[in-house]
Structures are given as C-alpha cells and as structure tokens.
Amino acid sequence: MKIKISFYCLFICILLTVSAYSDNRYVTDRMRITLRAGPDVSYKVIGLVNSGESVELIEERQKWSRVETDDGKVGWVMTRFLTADIPKSDLLEKLQKEHESLKGKTKRFANENEKLKSDNSDIKKELNKTVIELKNKSDAFENLNKGCQKYKELKIKHEKFTEEMKNQQKELNQIKQEKAVLESYQFFWGFGMALAVLAIGFIIGKTSQKKRTARLY
Description:
The chain has 217 residues and is an alpha+beta fold. Helices cover 69% and strands 16% of the residues. The protein has helices spanning 2-21, 88-216, and strands at residues 23-27, 32-36, 45-50, 54-60, 64-68, 74-78, 82-83.
C-alpha cells in the first residue's frame, strides 16, 4: 500500500514539474506567424508557424514568447498571436473532420450491423433446423426405446413360454415312459392270464379224462 502511494505521489510530482517548465500554445486565427531568432522584429526569421499548430512554450514575456515547434525549431514569436485554446476555426475544421470520420464509422457500423443481423437470422434458421432435427431424433429414440421395451417384454414371454414347453416336453416324455412300462405290464399280464387259462383248461381236461376212465372200470 505504501509503495502504491509513493508511486502516485511521484507521478503527480512529475506532472507538476512538466507543467511548470512547459506548456502548449496555439497560433490564433487563420494566419502564419514568423519564428525569429530573438524577441524582436529585428532578429532573423528562422521559420513560420501556421494557424492551429501547437508549439511548446518555453518562456513567456509580455510581447514575445520563446517556443519550440513540432519539428524541433526553437525561436521567438509574438505573444499576442498565441492562445492556450485551439482556435475556433481550426477547432471547427477539426470537429468537421471528426464528424466525417464518425459518419464513415457509423455507416461502416451500420453495414456491419446489417451483416450481423443477416448472420443472426441465418444462425436462427440453422438453430431452428437443428432443434427440429434434434426433436425428430429424440422422438425416434423414444420410439426405438419403446420398441426395445416391447422386445424385452416379448423376449421374457418367449423365454417363459420356452421354459414351459420344456417342462411340458419332460412331462410328456415321462408319460410316454410310464405308458410304455404299463403296456409292458399289460402284455405280460395278458400273456400270463392266457397261460393260466390254458393251464387251468389243461388241468380241468385231465381231471375230466381221469373221471371218465374211472367210470369205465
């Protein structure tokens, strides 16, 4: 903080020093004044200063002032031809030039603004197109997701049906096996019964034959 305050104080002192030793003046009205080697008309003319040109004031007296021009020439001019303000005619010309410059900039900015509006319109159209495409893709994805959900449900049903079919097939195979066994039992049982009937008939026949033979004797 102290460093900043010291820096600001130093900067202000430099400004005050520059202001104390030099100042700018302007040549009044529309004219050209002579720059002389000394503070009197008897001195040699070393240059000319046009109206509106800025000179650096080195020393100021009642009638004459010592100045330095922009091109580095140092000499004396009459104090009454100097003013601290820019001459109105030069100021007006300067303002007119600035006005023309601003008009040109305004026109350029207007053209750029129109271009930006056109670009903005194109961007809006492209954005709307992108939004529509995104919505279509979102709807397609939603439909696909629904289709996938239905597919999952059908797959679950198919797996359940397949499992039921496998169980029914197992039961059917078991029933077939039981039927085959039962048929085998029935075959052997019928065959046994037939043998038993034959045996009983044979026994009965033998018994009857013996009875008949006994009666004869």
